[in-house]
Amino acid sequence: MTDSLLVAGRAIALDGHDGSGKSSVAAALAARGYGSVVKPFSAGLGDYIAHLWGNRHFAEADRAARFAVRAVSRVPGRLIFDRHWLTMATVLPERYMKAWERPKTVVCWADLPTTIERLRQRGEEIGDLDYHRFYLDEYRRIADRAGVAVVETTSLSVAEAATAIAEILGLRTTA
After folding, report:
1. Is residue 156 part of a domain?
2. What pairs with residue 106 in β-bridges?
């Protein structure tokens, strides 16, 4: 993504742990005319990036993730990123994050019981609860350090969360 996309406000990002509501909220924002949803780490690329950082190949994971962001940035109009820099900040050493451009970002966050229930509803394997606790804490910690707003989706409907995020980001429809 180029600086002009950020300056022009052409991109916003929703980050958060699995089950936080970011994909549902991104779709709701798009349905309201705030932009088009792009998922840079989808279609197996997220698994590949996870494999790289899991094996401590941080430079390669960083390159692959930034390439993915640039690739989806070719979509015309305002972009609503379903995961971006803050997601990568949860897995990469901080030295890699200095090179990342940071669009206006909001973290979607839900408490552990809600996260687990949402994952169950999607038919996903739950795995280790400590894993989920760690990432729930990590998203909050990074958001706090970076001055990024956190919208707690635990007790909000998708529509309510979308309204809150649109207000935080000062969004106007692109139509």
Report:
1. yes
2. 14, 149
Beta bridge partners of 37: 80
Domain coverage including residue 50:
3-169
Per-residue pLDDT tens listing for the chain (175 residues): 444 555 567 899 999 999 999 999 999 999 999 999 999 998 788 899 999 999 999 999 999 999 999 999 888 899 999 999 999 999 999 999 999 999 999 999 999 999 999 999 999 999 999 999 999 999 999 999 999 999 999 999 999 999 999 999 998 876 5
β pairing state of 36-38 and 149-152: unpaired
Task: Find all residues with CB under 8 Å of 173, minimum gap 6, and list them.
Answer: 32, 33, 34
Does 139 fall in a domain? yes
Name the domain count of the chain: 1
The CATH number of the domain where 83 resides is what? 3.40.50.300
Tell me how far CA of residue 141 lies from CA of 24, 138, 145, 170, in angstroms.
23, 5, 6, 24
Report pTM. Answer: 0.92
Q: What is the C-alpha to C-alpha distance for residues 87 and 24, in angstroms, rounded to an integer?
A: 17
